[in-house]
């Protein structure tokens, strides 16, 4: 690993520092992404592949490997630049294409790995590479096995370039060190070294489709509108990531980068808008993640998008009053997704009301639909999950959805009570707007609040579960969602006691006390041992800092500052450049897990909005 200069630029503002990575993400806002040269099988160029009622991702390019080591990487937010000794390469993803703008002289090799993202079969893979006019045509056929008797599908990459092309056509085995560290097999795969380019002030377009004709048409359009596309993306950035307040440059650039990554993860698939949980693995629309991230959209007054994302869930409420965990569907249940959606709808309505535009954005028919959805959800949650005055959930149904040694968080949990209480508060608000009687919901809120205080608040601590004294950072979620559960002085004591057991000196919170037998100081990867039993989650760290600032910014100033500085540093210089990762090992600030996570980016932006 070598040191590299990393620079972030927006408008006339820039900040730079030293890093040890050259990872960065680009997306096309249609579900595809490009991950530059990380040592994982999930690197490379991906596009959405639609299925009957779902989708997956299809990989095309594995690496575009330059013959020189970059001296500097520049994050311009809408594109990335690599600077070499005698050349500069700009990368941009648009529609079903990746565009490279090359100034100066440099050689590079193109390696292919065409397959569905989780299809690691090595059999029946045939590449055919040939030139046709100004285009390099790559035809990929996948057969069921090496007999080549049954064709499963064929795909096309078409490359337009004025660079010199030398075919290689060799298979070679690649080792993926990051996947080995994550215990995510396979760690080795055979990829196809297609050829080498010698570029001299060249342009390169790589376009993808199921058909050769469509891929050629895409590459032709991109090559003819090459400069316009770069200008268009720069203008899009200026219109969507407006920074209207003064901020120090390092804060401004980390804030703008987080907002741009949140925008990058906002995608449209078959006219369905959603927000990826994260990349490269969570390329689905996760209910709770969308809702948690929605706070930043509301803070930024992106009301149309927030409404589109949140109100779309009203049609998906199940017979038990909950929402599915994600789209496409998974078997894992979600106890908190419905509460988070209603929490964010409440935030949206309050924000619209404060702007005096609530009736402009929400029609009477939409208010009635919201009322019906709330009534249906509340009544069915009470019917199925209210036990002894508290809402209960099964194993693996909260955001802490992995287990180790029977640590499953089943039963009555603190943040689930808070989320149901804010749901009841929203219902009362909607009833008042519609001039409906909301007394039942007022009474139910008071009853559950009192029972939650009695069951969870003990000896100046807020228990994680009714029958579980384990200290976890979910107390900060409870405050963030429903601060009326306790009074201010009680919350201060709760926070102090939580920090004593969970605080990490680098500026984060562990997910379980450091003295616990389940605590893991380092990220253990795909086995999930550390995932919710040690690993420090950036979204929750940022949320905790927001809570501490709102409660008593002077009392908790040292903690707020350390969390803020750790998140800012991770975005700018430690992980995928300009992206906020999923989590860090507890022992030291070391980004791990998903390289860019929607709720991490969103909660950092919300933290900046809170502090400044």
Protein described:
It is globular and about 75 Å long. Helix 4 packs across helix 15. The chain has 16 helices and 32 strands. A hairpin with a 6-residue loop joins strand 30 (583-584) and strand 31 (591-592). The protein has a 16-stranded mixed sheet that branches. The protein has a three-stranded antiparallel sheet with strand order 22-23-24. It is an alpha+beta fold and 612 residues long. The two termini are 36 Å apart. 48% of the residues are buried. The mean pLDDT is 96.
- β-strand amount: 25-35%
**Secondary structure tally: strands:** 32
**What overall geometry do the principal axes of the alpha carbons give?**
globular
User: From the alpha-carbon coordinates, what is the Rg to the nearest angstrom?
Assistant: 25 Å
- Note the main sheet: 16 strands, mixed
What separation lies between the terminal Cα atoms? 36 Å
Number of separate helices: 16
Percent of residues in helical segments? 25-40%
Q: What are the low-pLDDT stretches, counting only 5+ consecutive residues below 50?
A: none
> What is the overall pLDDT average?
96
Structural class: alpha+beta
């Amino acid at each position: 690993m070598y040191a590299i200069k990393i620079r972030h630029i927006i408008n006339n503002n820039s900040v730079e520092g030293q890093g040890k990575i050259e990872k960065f993400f680009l997306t096309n806002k249609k579900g595809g992404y490009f991950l530059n040269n990380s040592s994982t099988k999930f690197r490379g160029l991906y596009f959405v592949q639609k299925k009957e009622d779902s989708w997956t991702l299809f990989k095309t390019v594995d690496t575009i490997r330059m013959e020189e080591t970059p001296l500097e990487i520049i994050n311009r937010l809408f594109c990335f630049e690599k600077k070499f000794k005698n050349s500069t390469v700009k990368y941009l993803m648009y529609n079903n294409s990746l565009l490279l703008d090359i100034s100066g002289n440099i050689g590079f090799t193109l390696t292919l790995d065409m397959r569905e993202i989780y299809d690691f079969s090595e059999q029946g893979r045939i590449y055919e590479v040939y030139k046709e006019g100004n285009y390099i045509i790559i035809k990929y056929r996948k057969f069921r096995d090496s007999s080549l008797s049954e064709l499963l599908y064929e795909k096309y990459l078409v490359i337009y370039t004025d660079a010199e092309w030398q075919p290689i056509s060799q298979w070679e085995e690649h080792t993926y060190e990051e996947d080995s560290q994550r215990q995510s097999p396979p760690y080795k795969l055979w990829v196809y070294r297609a050829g080498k380019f010698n570029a001299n002030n060249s342009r390169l377009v790589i376009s993808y489709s199921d058909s050769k004709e469509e891929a050629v048409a895409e590459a032709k359009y991109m090559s003819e509108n090459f400069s316009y596309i770069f200008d268009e993306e720069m203008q899009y950035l200026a219109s969507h990531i407006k920074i209207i307040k003064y901020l120090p440059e390092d804060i401004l650039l980390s804030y703008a980068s987080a907002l741009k990554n949140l925008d990058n993860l906002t995608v449209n698939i078959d006219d369905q808008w959603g927000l990826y949980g994260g990349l490269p693995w969570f390329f689905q629309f996760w209910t709770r993640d969308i809702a948690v991230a929605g706070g930043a959209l509301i803070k930024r007054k992106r009301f149309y998008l927030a409404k589109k994302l949140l109100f779309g869930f009203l049609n998906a409420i199940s017979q038990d009053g909950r929402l599915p965990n994600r789209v496409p569907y998974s078997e894992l249940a979600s106890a908190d997704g419905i509460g988070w959606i209603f929490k964010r709808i409440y935030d949206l309505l309050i924000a619209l009301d404060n702007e005096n535009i609530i009736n402009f954005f929400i029609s009477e028919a939409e208010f009635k639909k919201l009322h019906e959805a709330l009534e249906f959800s509340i009544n069915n949650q009470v019917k199925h999950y209210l036990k002894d005055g508290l809402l209960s959930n099964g194993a693996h149904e909260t955001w802490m959805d992995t287990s180790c040694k029977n640590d499953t968080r089943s039963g009555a949990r603190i943040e689930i009570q808070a989320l149901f209480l804010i749901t009841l508060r929203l219902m009362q608000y909607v009833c008042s707007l519609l001039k409906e009687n909301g007394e039942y919901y007022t009474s139910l809120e008071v009853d559950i609040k009192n029972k939650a205080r009695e069951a969870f608040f003990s000896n100046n601590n807020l228990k994680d579960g009714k029958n579980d004294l384990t200290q976890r950072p979910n107390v900060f979620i409870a405050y963030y969602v429903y601060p009326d559960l306790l009074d201010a002085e009680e919350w201060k004591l709760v926070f102090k006691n939580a920090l004593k057991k969970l605080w990490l000196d680098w500026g984060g919170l562990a997910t379980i006390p450091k003295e616990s037998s389940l605590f893991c100081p380092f990220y253990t990867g795909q086995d999930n041992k550390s995932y919710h039993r040690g690993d420090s989650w950036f979204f929750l760290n940022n949320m905790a800092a927001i809570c501490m600032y709102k409660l008593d910014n002077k009392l908790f100033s040292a903690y707020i500052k350390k969390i803020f500085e750790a998140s800012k540093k991770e975005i700018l210089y430690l992980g995928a450049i300009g992206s906020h990762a999923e989590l860090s090992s507890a022992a030291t600030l070391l980004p791990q897990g998903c390289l860019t996570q929607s709720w991490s980016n969103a909660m950092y932006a919300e933290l900046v909005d809170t502090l400044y």
